[in-house]
Amino acid sequence: MSDENVIFHGRLAVQQRVLPAYRAPFFETLAGSCEGGLSVFAGQPLPGEGIVPVEKLDKGVLFMGRNRHYFDITSPFYQCWQEGLLVWLERWQPDALIVEANLRYLNTRRAVSWMHARGRPVLGWGLGAPPLKGLFGGIRRGSRARFLSMLDGLIAYSQRGAQEYQALGFPPERIFTAPNAAAAKPTRPPPDRPDGFTGRPVVLFVGRLQQRKRLDLLLEACASLPADKRPRLWIVGEGPAQAELQALAARAYPEAEFLGSKFGVELERCFEKADLFVLPGTGGLAVQQAMSFGLPVIVGEGDGTQDDLVRSENGWRLPAGEPGALQAALNAALSDALADPPRLRRMGVASYRIVSQEVNLEKMAAAFVEALNQVAGAVLPGG
């Protein structure tokens, strides 16, 4: 059965603390698979979070609540109360609810109880449940397990996340994986790149220029390479760390080119002319876009969402806490560019195949619907 034919025969509700703009395409795709419609509940982000929230959905219904934040969001004590959550459920009357699998959102339990009192299922959606350390690690682990036990199913961003939920004691048959996607499957073939290189390979970064992207590591890694392997480095984007990064580049790697923000055709040309995409830090919406242009990638390992996307066949994942890993990966990739150019191109072809066939918005939405249908006991078309 194709992704487009998987349908949830009911009204779906999805709770989010905040609905970032980059998530809108996913919810529009998911709404198209919900026969009874889709409504999303969300509040506003905190000032300084750097999140651009969605103001409306075209295919779904966006209900704006009010977030009351307690403690700093980076604190282990952070909590959020979402005003209007039960009002939204009363108005929308969903057949199924998906909530963020985060016990810090204080009235999520009330929403779960509201649904269960009416015999309707609730699924959680989250990154996973990484081990908790410190003095109160055991207590927090118990609280997390009790919260998750209220849910009828869990949707994990990655295989790693699914394994973490299982390790916490959640029944494996009720855990589903929907690889985190930020882009639809590509509709055009990848650029036709020659096997060889006539000049220095082009290494590309696209994203907001901020500290967590760790562009300082990329500049230093390029500077540490032998002269014959130093690439052209294109940095696309703007942000609060731009002046600091340009000053570092002037000292460490003057070959770096800061191209500013690019959009549309101009951005596409950058991807088409590049030979390798690198994102050394966290985040990474541009990774899938780079892969759709047939580029091998080097990415920070992060929270596990890159595990299903970047493999040995199409790139390198950088283990956290190993600053030398980026230099080693760059050296390996650029050595291939010199010694075995077709291998780097084959890795780019593998990238394209992964986002075309395995990790894209259509696959992600289909995985959500399949989870809903299994948990809710719904029957798929033709089933």
Describe this structure in words.
The protein has 383 residues and is of the alpha/beta class. Helices cover 35% and strands 18% of the residues. The chain folds into two domains: 3-181 and 360-376, Rossmann fold; 202-357, Glycogen Phosphorylase B (Rossmann fold, 3-Layer(aba) Sandwich), CATH 3.40.50.2000. It is built from twelve helices and 15 strands. The chain has a seven-stranded parallel β-sheet, with helices on both faces. Helix 6 packs parallel to helix 7. The longest helix has 17 residues, at 341-357. The radius of gyration is 22 Å and the shape is globular. It starts with 11 loop residues before the first strand and ends in a 7-residue tail after the last helix.
Q: In terms of topology, how is this protein built?
A:
Layout: E1 12-18, H1 24-31, E2 38-43, E3 61-64, E4 66-70, E5 79-83, H2 85-92, E6 96-100, H3 108-117, E7 122-126, H4 137-149, E8 153-156, H5 159-167, E9 175-177, E10 202-206, H6 215-223, E11 232-236, H7 242-252, E12 257-260, H8 264-273, E13 276-279, H9 285-292, E14 297-300, E15 315-318, H10 324-339, H11 341-357, H12 361-376
Parallel strand pairs: 1-2, 1-6, 2-3, 6-7, 7-8, 8-9, 10-11, 10-13, 11-12, 13-14, 14-15
Antiparallel strand pairs: 4-5
Helix pairs in contact: 1-12, 6-7, 6-10, 9-11, 10-11
